[in-house]
Each structure stands twice: as structure tokens, then as C-alpha cells.
From TrEMBL:
<keyword id="KW-1133">Transmembrane helix</keyword>
<protein>
    <submittedName>
        <fullName>ATP-binding cassette subfamily B protein</fullName>
    </submittedName>
</protein>
<dbReference type="InterPro" id="IPR003439">
    <property type="entry name" value="ABC_transporter-like_ATP-bd"/>
</dbReference>
<keyword id="KW-0812">Transmembrane</keyword>
<dbReference type="InterPro" id="IPR011527">
    <property type="entry name" value="ABC1_TM_dom"/>
</dbReference>
<dbReference type="InterPro" id="IPR027417">
    <property type="entry name" value="P-loop_NTPase"/>
</dbReference>
<dbReference type="InterPro" id="IPR039421">
    <property type="entry name" value="Type_1_exporter"/>
</dbReference>
<feature type="domain" description="ABC transmembrane type-1">
    <location>
        <begin position="48"/>
        <end position="336"/>
    </location>
</feature>
<keyword id="KW-1003">Cell membrane</keyword>
<dbReference type="InterPro" id="IPR003593">
    <property type="entry name" value="AAA+_ATPase"/>
</dbReference>
<dbReference type="GO" id="GO:0005886">
    <property type="term" value="C:plasma membrane"/>
</dbReference>
<dbReference type="Pfam" id="PF00005">
    <property type="entry name" value="ABC_tran"/>
</dbReference>
<keyword id="KW-0472">Membrane</keyword>
<feature type="transmembrane region" description="Helical">
    <location>
        <begin position="174"/>
        <end position="204"/>
    </location>
</feature>
<feature type="transmembrane region" description="Helical">
    <location>
        <begin position="276"/>
        <end position="298"/>
    </location>
</feature>
<keyword id="KW-0547">Nucleotide-binding</keyword>
<dbReference type="GO" id="GO:0016887">
    <property type="term" value="F:ATP hydrolysis activity"/>
</dbReference>
Length: 617
């Protein structure tokens, strides 16, 4: 089973066993070319400069050691003979000095380039993730598996810059090994073999434990998101109020502690095992090295090697051992990094289902017939229940339609279908005779203005908070102020110290917090930022006082004259202003008609209306 198939297997389930075979690790290396393509795209010149420097740097250790050998041999020669020309000796010393400086300088330059390239890469990937997330469906955002995937992808942005330097370092060290091996192979090929055999157990051990860690992290993704969420609940301006009055901090801390302790226990188990086995394996490596060292010493005593040869070989073996260990260990890190890349690439492979058809229709210049629901049913993903069932009705071109129904009746779902945040599971919605899915999605959203009951309170200034309704007009001050006038937000603006430039919310400096009704007026202004043909307000006046509500609706009625509008409200004073009222019950149409017609009918609407009216008597 390949890595992807395994991933698929975990979809929707709790991901706790992400075991990888050696073959899968190797297979993951196939991600590296794509990764380097991304790195290259980040900055071609930095990638080239870093690669060239690494190649040059990789030859330096062996060159320095070899010059060291020549120096020692020369010193011994000079001390044994009465020759006084030391020119060669000093030239060698100068050369070694120069190489040492170059080696140090190139290392620093490489690490500088890695840091810069890493940061650029991380920024670029973060932006790519945000861009891609923006193309995905609302439905995908409501799925926990999707969040896990996005979280793992997000982690890649910082983690992967490490992968970059690791992989490049790997190549550099492999070249160094080749240089060392070339120097040593002439003198004693068997000793190289001895070294290689000695470091293999350490490699296998590391590989095993890295694998275990990857599995562990993979399985912990959901819990890590939960920990992040608890941390946010425990320390955020938005949550502080409830956490305090409900006295939730101990509850949250306990929750945090339980998960954090579990992480600690799991990580500790692996860390202890890894450390114990690591010690044993390191001893084997040392045994190999000292075995080789003893052989070299014996051969020097026998006169087969010079003292210079001894220092060169001992040094070479020491470095070769370090390099070999490093390369083999890093193989697991690199392949694991490549494995994590699978998560990143899989995230980029996610495709939205709500898309444009090949040749989308332009949105009509003027809506003629309106929206027709034809036996529309809708079920949320991961839900067994129909949120909308077999719904048929027409929203006429210039009609003001109110949606009424108890909590969970499907009102918000219905307007989400109208804006194609979801597509119907069954049936279809027509606009002027054509399926909504045939229209250009972007144009559809541009022509529909919608304010949700759970609208966002952007921690930005007032002007931007209104402009989000049509962000391309963010600098159009006159449009923003006129939108504010329609929604009564202009009265609020006048009271604020910095007027339209006033930062709202408490998160940032000089922010002013608004009351619930004030926020609602700000959100309502967003609906007036564009000349939409259909305006949908989902409980737009719930937080408004009675006078504000009355005024808002007077204006709304004027502004939506000749346009379609949908109003969701639990307040019958609002609802009765609509041309027609659609009563939803458990996702189905219970009644539709004008206020008077429905009262006369004395059905569900009349019952709900009288129930509310009774409260006022
Ligand atoms: N994102 C979602 N995923 C799964 N089920 C959902 C989702 N949103 C809503 N539902 C379910 O769909 C049904 C209809 O919800 P909807 O939000 O449309 O009701 P509503 O009539 O707007 O209710 P309210 O008056 O409380 O705002 C409810 O049973 C709800 O639990």
C-alpha cells in the first residue's frame, strides 16, 4: 500500500497508525524534485549560489587535511635534515590558512543563504496555502479531516525550510565523502568498508525512531489542533468574558493538561528508547573507528605509513565517520521531511466541488423571472438528516420574501444554496430559466449581497469593516459613507474619535469595542456596498432596538424597490413588511403567502404570529 493509499485509508477516521515502510520512505523522496522546483521558483539565484557554494565547500575538509599531512611531513623532514629552506613549509601553512578562512566564510554564506531562502520559501508557501484555501468550498472548511490536512500543510511552511538545508547539506556531505573516500581508498579500502558497516546499525536505529515519531505526530494532528484551540479559549479577548463568568479556566487548564501530559508520555517513551539505543549504536560506530585507527597506528610503526599519513588518515577516518553517520541519519530526516511534503501536496490537490462550468453564463443584466426552487433537497456532509427537503417555490424578480421557521428549520441553509455556498444534493435552483450552476460563480456572488447572522467583526477600522461588502471599493469613501447612512452606521461613525478611521474591537491598539446593535449596523452597511440584484439579510435586526429596526426597514424597503430580497427574521414586526412569507418546517415548505393571507389561513404562521403577539399583550 503506498503512502497515499494509507492516507486515504485514514480519511474520516481517527488517524492513529501511520506506519511507514522503508520503501515508502524511499518513495517519499520522489517529492523532492517538486520541492526543489518550488524552492527554485522562490529564488533562482539564491538556489544556484547556495548549490555552487556547497560544492566548493565540500572539497575543503579533505584539502585542509591533506595540506596538514604535507605540513607534518615537511616539518619532520626539516627537523631530520640540515636543509634550511622553509619556503615550502610556509607556503603550505599559508595555503591551509587561506583554505580555513575560505571554508569558514563559505559556511557562513551558505547558512545565510539558507536562512533567507528558507524564509522566502516559507512566506511563499504560506501565501500559496491561503490562496488555495480561498478556492475551496465552505463544506470543506466544515470538515475535521480537512482541518487536519490543512494543519499539516501549514506546518510544512516552516518545517520545510529545514528540509531545504538538510537536503542541500546531504548532497554537500556526500560529495565530501567521495573526496575523502577517494583519498583513502588508495591507502586502505577495507578500512572504509569497516567504517560503513559500523555506522549502519545507528542508521537503522535512527530510521526506526524517526518513523515512530512521524507516526506519533501524524496521529496527534487533531489533538494538537484541540490544544491550540484550548490555548486560544484560555487567552483571548473574545473568550475572556465567558471564561471568567462561567469560571472555566480550571476546566480548560485540566483539558490542556490531560492532552499535554499524554503528548509528553508518548514523546518521552520514544525519546528514552531512542537515547538508549543511540548510545549502543554510537559505541559500535566508535568501535569501527578505533579499529581502523589501531590498524593505521600499527602500519605507521611498521614504517608502511609516514607520520603525515597517520594524521591524514586518522583525521580522514574521524571526519568520514562523522560524515557517514550524518548522511545516513539525515537520510531518515530528509525522507521524513519528504513524507511531510506528501501532506502539503495533498492539500494542494484538494479541489473545490463548487466550480464554474466550462462556459458559464453571464449573470443577467436584469433579473426577469426570478429564482425558482425545483424540488430542492440538501444534506450537509457527514450528516444523515435532510436540512432542506423537496422544496419548491419561486422568488420573483422584484419580490421581498421573508423566511420564517423555528430554529434549525433550514432558513440559513436555504440562503446558502441561493449564493452557491453549497449546491443542492437533489433538485435544482433556476435563475431566469437556467440552472444556477450554469452561471459564472464570481458574477453570481457579485450580484448577491448577503449579511449572515454570524457576520464577522473584523478587528480593522470602521471604513474597512464596511468596505468588506465590496472590497474593490475600499477606497471609495463616498460609497462607504452612503452605505453607512443606509444602515444607520453613520451616526455611530460621528461619535467615534477617529470617525471612519476608527479601529474597531479590542484586539489592537486604540480599538473601540461596539455594542451588539452597533456592530449589526456596521455589518448591514456591507449589504449596501454594491448594487446587488438580490439582497439577503439573515436576522439583520435581531440586536437592533425598536426604533433602529423600524428605520432600517424603511430604508431597506426603499433600497430594494424593484429588486429581489430575502429576509430571515424571528421578529414578526419585520416579517410582516415582506410581500410574501415562506414558512419552513424541518426543511420543507409549510406555507407561503402574504401576511394577511397566512393569518387568514390560520395555519402555522398564524400560530407563531399569535404566540409572539401574545407576549406583547
Ligand atoms: N454546517 C453544517 N453542517 C451540518 N449541519 C448543519 C450545518 N449548518 C446547519 N446544519 C443543520 O441543518 C439544519 C438547518 O440549519 P439552519 O442553520 O439552516 O437553520 P435555521 O433555520 O437558519 O436556524 P436558526 O433559526 O436557528 O438560525 C439544522 O438541523 C442544523 O443542525
Amino acid at each position: 500500500m503506498n503512502a497515499r493509499a494509507k492516507f486515504q485509508r485514514h480519511k474520516g477516521g481517527k488517524s492513529t497508525d501511520k506506519t511507514l515502510t522503508f520503501k515508502e520512505r524511499l518513495a517519499a523522496l520522489r517529492n523532492l524534485p517538486m520541492f526543489f522546483k518550488m524552492v527554485w521558483q522562490t529564488s533562482p539565484w539564491m538556489t544556484v549560489a547556495s548549490s555552487l557554494l556547497r560544492i566548493a565547500r565540500s572539497a575543503m575538509p579533505v584539502a585542509i587535511l591533506y595540506i596538514g599531512k604535507l605540513i607534518i611531513d615537511e616539518v619532520i623532514f626539516l627537523s631530520a635534515h640540515a636543509v634550511h629552506s622553509t619556503e615550502k613549509l610556509w607556503t603550505l601553512v599559508a595555503l591551509e590558512f587561506l583554505l580555513a578562512i575560505l571554508s569558514d566564510g563559505s559556511s557562513r554564506l551558505i547558512s545565510l543563504l539558507d536562512t533567507l531562502l528558507g524564509e522566502l520559501f516559507s512566506n511563499k508557501t504560506s501565501i500559496k496555502i491561503m490562496e488555495h484555501a480561498a478556492t475551496l468550498d465552505l463544506e470543506q472548511f466544515e470538515d475535521a479531516t480537512f482541518y487536519d490536512k490543512m494543519e499539516r500543510a501549514r506546518q510544512q511552511t516552516t518545517g520545510r525550510s529545514v528540509l531545504l538545508s538538510q537536503t542541500m547539506g546531504q548532497v554537500q556531505d556526500i560529495i565530501s565523502i567521495i573526496f575523502f573516500a577517494a583519498g583513502l581508498v588508495v591507502l586502505s579500502p577495507w578500512l572504509i568498508l569497516l567504517l560503513i558497516v559500523a555506522v549502519i546499525p545507528a542508521f537503522l536505529g535512527e530510521s526506526h525512531f524517526n518513523n515512530k515519531l512521524y507516526e506519533l505526530y501524524w496521529g496527534q494532528t487533531s489533538e494538537r489542533r484541540e490544544v491550540d484551540y484550548i490555548r486560544y479559549l484560555g487567552a483571548s479577548d473574545e473568550t475572556a468574558k465567558e471564561v471568567k463568568v462561567f469560571g472555566l479556566s480550571d476546566f480548560l487548564i485540566d483539558k490542556f493538561r490531560t492532552i499535554a501530559n499524554k503528548f509528553y508520555r508518548d514523546n518521552k517513551r520514544i525519546a528514552v528508547q531512542r537515547s538508549a539505543w543511540g548510545t549502543v549504536f554510537a559505541m559500535m560506530g566508535s568501535l569501527g573507528y578505533y579499529g581502523a585507527y589501531i590498524i593505521i597506528i600499527l602500519r605507521t610503526i611498521n614504517g608502511q605509513l609516514s607520520i603525515g599519513d597517520l594524521t591524514f588518515m586518522a583525521g580522514s577516518f574521524r571526519q568520514l565517520r562523522g560524515l557517514l553517520e550524518g548522511v545516513l541519519m539525515r537520510f531518515t530526516v530528509v525522507s521524513q521531511g519528504a513524507m511531510y511534503l506528501t501532506d502539503l501536496f495533498e492539500f494542494f490537490e484538494l479541489k473545490p466541488r463548487i466550480n464554474n462550468v466550462a462556459k458559464p453564463r453571464p449573470f443577467p443584466a436584469k433579473i426577469e423571472q426570478g429564482f425558482v426552487f425545483e424540488n430542492v433537497s440538501f444534506k450537509y456532509m457527514n450528516s444523515e438528516k435532510w436540512a432542506i427537503r423537496d422544496l419548491s417555490f419561486t422568488l420573483h424578480a422584484t419580490e421581498k420574501l421573508a423566511l420564517v421557521g423555528e430554529n434549525g428549520a433550514g432558513k440559513t441553509t436555504l440562503v446558502k444554496l441561493l449564493t452557491r455556498l453549497y449546491d443542492p444534493t437533489e433538485g435544482r435552483i433556476l435563475l431566469d430559466g437556467y440552472d444556477l450552476r450554469d452561471y459564472d460563480l464570481l458574477q453570481l456572488r457579485q450580484h448577491v449581497g448577503i449579511i449572515f447572522q454570524d457576520f464577522l467583526r473584523y478587528q480593522m477600522n470602521l471604513s474597512q469593516n464596511i468596505a468588506v461588502g465590496n472590497i474593490i471599493e475600499k477606497d471609495n469613501t463616498s460609497l462607504i459613507t452612503s452605505a453607512a447612512q443606509q444602515s444607520l452606521a453613520h451616526l455611530l461613525a460621528e461619535k467615534l474619535p477617529a470617525k471612519y478611521d476608527q479601529m474597531l474591537g479590542k484586539r489592537f491598539h486604540n480599538g473601540v469595542e461596539l455594542s451588539g446593535g452597533e456592530w449589526q449596523k456596521v455589518a448591514l452597511a456591507r449589504a449596501y456596498m454594491k448594487h446587488a440584484d438580490l439582497i439577503i439579510l439573515d436576522e439583520p435586526t435581531a440586536a437592533l432596538d425598536a426604533r433602529a429596526e423600524y428605520e432600517v426597514f424603511q430604508r431597506f424597503a426603499d433600497l430594494t424597490k424593484g429588486k429581489s430580497s430575502v429576509l430571515i427574521s424571528h421578529r414578526f414586526s419585520t416579517v410582516r413588511m415582506a410581500d410574501r412569507i415562506l414558512v419552513l418546517e424541518k426543511g420543507t415548505l409549510a406555507e407561503i403567502g402574504s401576511h394577511e393571507e397566512l393569518l387568514e389561513k390560520n395555519g402555522r404562521y398564524a400560530e407563531l404570529f399569535n404566540l409572539q403577539a401574545m407576549g406583547y399583550r
